[in-house]
Write a structure and sequence with these properties.
Number of domains: 1
Structural class: mainly alpha
Helix content: 40-55%
Order of helices and strands: EHHHHE
Largest sheet: 2 strands, antiparallel
Shape: globular
Number of helices: 4
Strand order of the largest sheet: 1-2
Number of strands: 2
Oligomer: single chain
Radius of gyration: 12 Å
């Protein structure tokens, strides 16, 4: 049984991620996570996202997976206790 992690952002969440990617005050890791989630929300498959952002496919998969399992709160967890998003950010689809 394959597990697919679906990212479905609200307009507010999308705007917050755009702000993360456009401001120069966050680490590269956080910016990359935000970019992955934005592209995933647009419906791109993991392989395409990985090629576009020059990251491994497993990085994209793990980002989606953590988004589901940790309900989006991992995105800004850089040791400073930051959080973002509402718990309904992502969902798991078992097919």
């Amino acid at each position: 049984m394959a597990v697919k992690y679906i990212v479905n952002l609200s307009a507010q969440e999308r705007e917050h991620l755009y702000q993360i990617t456009s401001k120069g005050k966050t680490t590269g890791r956080i910016v990359k996570r935000a970019q992955i989630l934005l592209l995933a929300d647009e419906g791109h498959p993991d392989e395409t996202i990985a090629n576009m952002l020059k990251v491994g496919e497993s990085t994209v998969h793990r980002t989606r997976q953590r988004c589901v399992e940790e309900q989006g709160y991992f995105i800004l967890d850089s040791g400073k206790g930051f959080t973002c998003f509402q718990p309904q950010l992502c969902r798991e689809i078992v097919s």
